[in-house]
Amino acid sequence: MAYKISDDCIGCGVCASGCPVEAISEGTPYVIDESVCIDCGACAANCPVGAPAEA
Ligand code: SF4
Ligand code: SF4
Questions:
Q1: How far is the CA of 2 from the centre of ligand 1 (A)?
Q2: Ligand 1 proximal residues by C-beta, below 6 Å
Q3: Which atom of ligand 1 is nearest to the CA of 50?
Q4: E strand or H helix that includes residue 25
Q5: How far is 10 from 31, CA to CA, in rounded Å?
Q6: Nearest residue (CA) to ligand 1, atom 4
Q7: CATH class of 3-54
Q8: pLDDT digits over 13-54, tens only?
Q9: Is the pLDDT of residue 1 over 90?
Q10: Which of 1, 19, 30, 40 has the fewest CB atoms found within 10 Å of its own CB?
Q11: Residue 30 in contact with residue 44, Cβ under 8 Å?
Q12: Domain segments of the chain as ranges
């Protein structure tokens, strides 16, 4: 399991800054590397628009 970022992403970068394993890369939308994500949920908790969700 890993989190994925939906097209609701507004590109604010908060999730990337808060990811403990630096799994999130800048993009439109931002992208989570599933092989690096440890499923901690921080990105979902921090995102202002609820774009990251468990895939
Ligand atoms: Fe996109 Fe949410 Fe990450 Fe901001 S915190 S870049 S809106 S997924
Ligand atoms: Fe990073 Fe945690 Fe989000 Fe995975 S769930 S991308 S480890 S903040």
A1: 16
A2: 5, 9-15, 29-30, 46-49, 51-52
A3: 2
A4: strand 24-25
A5: 12
A6: 12
A7: alpha beta
A8: 999 999 999 999 999 999 999 999 999 999 999 999 999 999
A9: no
A10: 1
A11: no
A12: 3-54
